[in-house]
Amino acid sequence: MKNSQELRSRLRTFKGRGERYAPATSGPFPKTVHEAASTDALRSWPPSPVFVQAQGCRLFSRSGKAYFDGTGGSGAVNLGHQHPRVVAAIIQQCQKLTHTGWNLQSQVRTELVRELGAFAPYQDCAVLFTVTGSEAIEAALKVARAYTGRDTVIAFDRSYHGKTGGSLLVTWRERFRKYSPVAAETVSFAPFPLLHLPGPAGQPAYCLEALQNLVAAAWSAGCPPAALILEPIQAAEGILPGGRDFLAGVLQVARKCGSLVIFDEIYTGFGRCGTPFYGSREGLTPDLLVVGKSLGNGLPVSAVLGPARVLNVLPPGFHTSTFAGHPLACRAALAVLEVMEQEKPWQQAAALGLRVFQFLQDQENRSEVIAGVRGEGMMLGFDCVDQGGQPSASLSRALVEEALARGLVLRCGGFTGATVKLTPPLIIPAEDMDFLLAALAQAIAAIRKR
Ligand SMILES: Cc1ncc(COP(=O)(O)O)c(C=O)c1O
């Protein structure tokens, strides 16, 4: 007992990050409680401040310090934090109906089907609701497999479509299990352009030729792909645009071999790149369009969109989840679509994004520490490079750290670890824009001196 009291008192005076450790309130032994390392934002670099409030482009920490959110909540708040119309809609819905479960219909869900269908680029559009981006990707792959009757999938080098996988494989009922999104051994990866780098390997023509060869090999082996899945601009691995020629080429290859093309527009959608969807800007319509993130402007809702004849191939009840089409998230999404229709925030994303892009290009021309400025609209990235011009993950971390010290939250990563990503809300007031550019310039100057 004495020992446990001592331990409790040591835990109370623990000088580390307070959020991780709490003294036990019951039971014979003291307990420690902490968020698992896998999701703990305090273990990312630099550790995230603990935020208690947000407004527009700003996040406020416990001490009241304001930060510009250069991440846009992982690209999920295109309209800015706490958008008044979205917040009002959620509050109203909260007072009426917060949950039914997927198998009891709610009016707000039917309204969202109608509005989302009108917003999507399909004549006879169906909407398959899911909760997270990863879940929507899995649902899209199931649809593709069911529609084509094929098993294999082609994805692309440096793609990121989520981190889940497996729950269906451990589900007992065979008739559900046979719609498993895809098995690891049936996925192949084709090259994706690296337009910002010299050399043929990153160019669209080279990548398309390699894709054609891969598809031809799959045909001869008797396993043509059910789907080709790609992000129009790869997000997680370093803001890497595929470019129009490449995307159009992928659609052509797929049409020839009867495979579906799935555009993962979870990041690029809802105005981020200067048009409602990335595909709409290029006049390209995939067979399936996967959306998430900013659809709910901060509330979890995602969906697969596509022609009804394709989506309805999956039998009723074969892709469901308890919170799919959740009333609060649907109401938030309806408010988002209303604001999108009226204010067309993608126009701002295009104009402000161009200003930030030109600013970064100017920094690239004047400084030897950043290179490879790229992206579209409010989805921008650049690499930090060392004196030899090589990508430097430690410099990009240093830049993110310097930015944070100046009140600008950024994240870095990508396949080299050296990419700094900039995906703020699309609507940035003039004074916040000045702040963003000044903080960026100072952070870049600070790493140049290191
Ligand atoms: C392009 C893309 N696809 C899929 C996902 C996975 O979405 P979620 O994290 O909501 O599961 C992400 C997440 O960042 C993403 O950027």
Task: Briefly characterize the structure.
The protein is α/β, with parallel strands linked by helices. It contains 14 helices and 17 strands.
Number of beta-strand segments: 17
Spatial order of the strands in the main sheet?
A: 4-12-11-10-7-5-6
Q: Give the CA-based shape.
A: globular
Give me the secondary-structure category: alpha/beta
Distance between the termini: 53 Å
Give the integer mean of the pLDDT values. 92
The major sheet is characterized as: 7 strands, mixed
What is the number of helices? 14
Strand content: 15-25%
The helix fraction, in percent, is: 25-40%
Low-confidence parts lasting 5 or more residues at pLDDT below 50?
A: 6-18
Q: Which ions, cofactors or small ligands are bound in this entry? A: pyridoxal-5'-phosphate
CATH architecture of the largest domain: 3-Layer(aba) Sandwich
CA-atom Rg in angstroms:
23 Å
CATH-assigned fold name of the largest domain: Aspartate Aminotransferase, domain 2
Going by CATH, the homologous superfamily of the largest domain would be Type I PLP-dependent aspartate aminotransferase-like (Major domain)
